[in-house]
Amino acid sequence: MKFSPLKLLANTLFFLQMSNTSQRVRETNQSVTSDFTLTGLFNHSGPHLALFSLVAAIFTMGLLGNAVLIFLIHTDARLHTPMYFLLSQLSLLDVGFPLVTIPKMAADFLQEEGAISFGGCAAQMFFLMLIGVSEGVLLSLISYDRYIAVCHPLHYPVLMRHQVCLLMVGTSWLSGVLVASIQTSITLHFPYCASHTVDHFFCELPALLKLSCADTSAYELALSVSGVLILLLPLSLVATSYSHVLGTVLHMHSAEARHKAFTTCSSHITVVGLFYEAAVFMYMVPGTYHTPQQDNVVSLFYSLITPTLNPLIYSLRNREVQMALVKILFRTGFRSKR
């Protein structure tokens, strides 16, 4: 048999290519089949037990507050307005935010374990991003609603008719689904062949990227740049809307109307500020500039504290909502007496 150097070289290259392919397949299989471990927020010391009880109480209050607000808006005809329809969607998102993270964190704490499957981690990351992006877009659309109500009140019934409100809500949800699908699929495409311990109390995109054994620097840069579109564009709409609102409010002749408009808009601005500050910190500031402990605190803030405060800041202190709540309580008490 005649020896052929070219054939030997071809066989060698084929063997190396197959070896690299097998290695990539092993890495992918390992990343797909392996579970992750969440470090959690608390240990079982005395102070941490107290903090865990506080988190559980805030979680319950947040769910109750948002559920009550959704119920009132649905049942009271006086709250069937564009603003309260949008706020009911915000409350729905605020119910979902803590439900995705807090029950899993509580179960891990009580069972003293932090394992989460690859699929569970993917689902957690997807729904968190879906809710977060949808809420950011919805907050900007709520600011537009306030701009029309204050600056163009005569055109409000036309510009904010029910079809427009449905389009706004659909846009916010669709934006969330689109961004979450893209970001989650890209993140899970990376191989996770090193440590599977997530230094976080839930699966969040920045925390997962730190575990990848591939070079994610280009994607992290793209993530920061995409934050300009996902976060700063809605935030610019909020700033523009409320700057026009403020200018109109300052020129109102009626002190009562000026006070009502200023109170409502200041509440909205507070909620927007709380939400966007946390989101910008997590997704626009590169991970090298903040520690895992800071990530845990900020994530707890926007996934639990902000959704709990939203119904209090936005609606439950409004006179219309208070009257609807009193009406429901009076009906309930009257029926129980009968």
TrEMBL record:
Residues 65-314 form the G-protein coupled receptors family 1 profile domain. One of its GO terms (molecular function) is G protein-coupled receptor activity. Keywords: Cell membrane, G-protein coupled receptor, Membrane, Olfaction, Receptor, Sensory transduction, Transducer, Transmembrane, Transmembrane helix. CDD domains: 7tmA_OR2T-like. The chain crosses the membrane at residues 48-72, 84-102, 122-144, 164-182, 221-240, 261-285, 297-316. Putative odorant or sperm cell receptor. This is Olfactory receptor.
